[in-house]
Each structure stands twice: as C-alpha cells, then as structure tokens.
Amino acid sequence: MEDQLRKLLETKEFEQLSKTEKDFVLQQISEAEYRTQFESLQMMKEEMKSEASTIKVDSAIPPNLMAALKNQKEKQQEEKQSKIFFLVQSKIPLWSAVAAVFLVFILSTPVFIDKDIKPSKTGVIASIDTVFVDKIIRDTLQIFVPADTVYKTIYVKDQNNHIAENRMTKPQGKTETKDDITIDLKEAMVLGGYTNVLDFEVHQEGQSLSEDSIGQKIFDYTN
Amino acid sequence: MKAFQIELKLNQDWDLTNKKINTNSSDEQLMSFLQKGSDSAFSILYERYSNRILFFMFKMLRNDEAKAQDFTQDIFIKVIESAHQFKTNKSFKTWIFTIAANHCKNHFRSVKHFADIDREAGALTYAVDHGKSMDQKLFQKRLSIEVDKLALHYRQTFVLRYHEELKIKEIAEIMDCPIGTVKSRLNHTINHLGEKLQVFKSLSDNFKLKEN
Q1: Between residues 98 and 127 of chain B, which touch chain A (CB distance below 8 Å)?
Q2: A73-91 b/e with 16+ CB inside 10 Å = b?
Q3: In B, which residues are within 8 Å of A55 by CB distance?
Q4: Which residue in B59, B143, B187 is closest to A43 by CB distance?
C-alpha cells in the first residue's frame, strides 16, 4: 500500500491522479499531506540538482589518480614479470642446479632405459592349476593294444555278498605319450609310483590312479 | 583539470586509432579496457562519475566538501586498484556506488559518528537570520537540512533514489539489503520529510501573516 503511494508521489501531482488513484490516496493520507509530500519531493530533487551543480571535483585529483594508475600498471607489470621469471629470479645453490639438470638428463635419455627387459608371461600362472593339467594329460593318453588281445570278464559268485568280481589278467597294452615316453602302466600302478609323464614330481596329495574315475576306466580297459 | 583533459584527449586519440575506445563505450566496456591498462578508459569513466560520486559523498558527509573531495579521490583509487576484480557482466554504476557507500560506512564506523548530529538549533537560527522573507529558496534549504539530519542509510537511499535516480533493485544491491528494506526506508523518509516540512510550512505561513 505504502509502496503504491510512494510511486504516485514520485510521479504524479494530486491533480494528475485518476479517480481511483485519488480514492486510494485519500484512504492513506489527506489531500494536503499528499500535496506537501509531493511538493517537498520535487523541491528536494531540484535542490539536490542545484547543489550538485555548485560543487566540482578538485583539479588536484586527476593528476593524483593518473599517478596512481601509472603505479598500478607498473605494479601489475612487475607481478607479471615475477611470475614469468620466477625460476630465474629465485636463487638456489649452483650444485643443486647442476644436480637437477643431470637428473633430468638421466631420466630423459633413452640410453639408460633397458630395452631388453621383456615383460614376464602369464603362462606360468595357468600351469599352476595342476589338477586341470593332469586331467587333460590323462585324456590324451593313447592306448595301443595288439589286435589279438582278448579281454575276458569272469564272473565269480561270491558266497557272502553275491557281488561280481573282476578278475585281472595281465595287461598287454602299453601307454604312450606324445613325448614317446612309454611306461608299463600296470607295473607302475602296482608299484604305487605312478606319476604323470609330464610331472616328474611325486605328488603327496590328490587321488591315486586307482581311485580316479578316469584311471579306473583305463585300468578296466587295459585289463 | 585542463591538463587532465589534454591528457585524456591524447589518450583517446591513441585508442581511437585502434578503434577500441570511444566516448560512447559503455561503462562496462571501459572497465574491460581499464583492466587491460587503458588510461583513456579510466579518464572517460572519471569524467562520467567524478561529480556524481563527489555529490554523493558531499551529502553523506553532511555537506563537508573538503572531506568529500578526499573521499572521491579515495573511491577512484579503489577503482584503479580493484579494477581486475570487476566483473564486466555487472553494472559499473552499481559497483562504484557500492564502493562509495561502503567507504562512508567504514568512515562513520571508525570515527563512531553514527549518532546524528542535531542540527535543529542551527537550522532554526538560519531560518530566523535569513527568514525575513520565507521564500521558496529558504524552504529548499530547510529541506536539505532535514535530509542531512537523516540517519546514514536513509540518507544514502534517498540520495541514490532521488538524485542518482537508481532503481530500487540497484539501491538494494548497493546497500546490500532486501528490496523491501529499501522501499520501507524511502517511505519512511518521505513521510518524515513531509511531517517536518508541514510543520515548517505552517510556521512559515504564520510568519507571513504576522508580517502582513
């Protein structure tokens, strides 16, 4: 409300107000008050204008300001230069400078970089999984059996358990790897010293061939 | 002043050859040139604002012209020193008046001058001494005195609005206060001046009646 009244006071005389505006103004203040306030506001503006025209800036100020501007520019120039020549301007011992240059030379010269060093291969990591390797090797075993080999399966009635028993005959077959390492599989198994043809270490852990399902099949097959 | 104007002209010529600065450039463009170290940009800005800042200071310092001159110089030195901080997308007019308003505030804070000087007695003496004809000029003088008696922030608001003719929003930015506060201060000032001047007018009318 007051804001609206102020806007009217700033712009319009009482006579210039519309009927609605007059009604609004008279709700707030009297006509005389409005006139006085409007008059005082206009007079104040005029007074300030005439007062402002009587005072002028001192003629000594501009030279001072130009000097200040010059100083400021010099200061900025110095700051700029100091940033550019920071390394040159800062004093460090000669030996430090020489050492730094030498270090940079060493680090950046290709002569000192050993190009013969090859990155280690990751194949070794895969061979760690011995169980996996064992099974693959067993799968690749080739069994050569003479053409006249006869396999007999003898069923013997067990008095107590009635369970069929396989009778083992002397194996005729021999195993052979790709490396032409030939072993007598049965003898090796009997002796208990069966080892993978590629793994010459004696395994302390894991399954024996007779316990292993694939080994059992081979065993059955050779018998 | 003459020497300064000559210097300004020379600088303008130099810059005009590069088609960079002219007197029609906006304040913000000139500030941009000042940031790059242009003397003539500063000279144009000084020409535009020096008297305005001087009058603002004059009113804030309750018509102390000598101090107002010093303060005007201080303000422009601040403009030179802080030119690189000015953001050219902002209004230069608002920026320079903010510097001026803060300078006044700091001054009054340092001298603990917040309490209004009671000039009532002096004003009345003035009125009696020169009051043989209560003419319009005297009435204006009385108005000026009443404005001087206002508290600093009311005075600032009043001068910025009715002499500098700034927008309410700009005044709020300069004085770092909400728009509503500016409006409220203006309303208060107008009411206050109206009341004071009504009393003065009635006194004046009585005086005229007695004279007749």
Answers
A1: none
A2: eeeeeeeeeeeeeeeeeee
A3: 51, 54-55, 58, 65, 68
A4: B143
What the block records as the tokens of B16 is 């005009």
Return the number of other C-beta atoms located less than 10 Å from residue A125's C-beta: 9
Q: What pLDDT does residue B125 have? A: 35
In a domain, A60, yes or no: no
- Half-sphere CA count of B55, side-chain side, radius 13 A: 20
Q: How far apart are CA B57 and CA B64, in angstroms?
A: 8
Domain count, chain A: 3
| Assigned fold of B120-211 | Arc Repressor Mutant, subunit A (1.10.10)
Q: How far lies B186's CA from each of A51, B101, B159, B182, B193, in Å? A: 21, 17, 10, 6, 10
d(CA B71, CA B99): 11
pLDDT, tens only, B129-182: 444 445 667 777 787 788 888 898 999 999 999 999 999 999 999 999 999 999
Residues 30 through 69 of chain A touching chain B, CB cutoff 8 Å: 32-33, 36-37, 40-41, 43-49, 51-52, 55-59, 61-66, 68-69
Whether the pLDDT of residue A171 is over 70: the answer is no
Q: Is residue A90 part of a domain?
A: yes
Averaged pLDDT of chain A: 72
The pair of structure tokens assigned to A192 is 């208990």
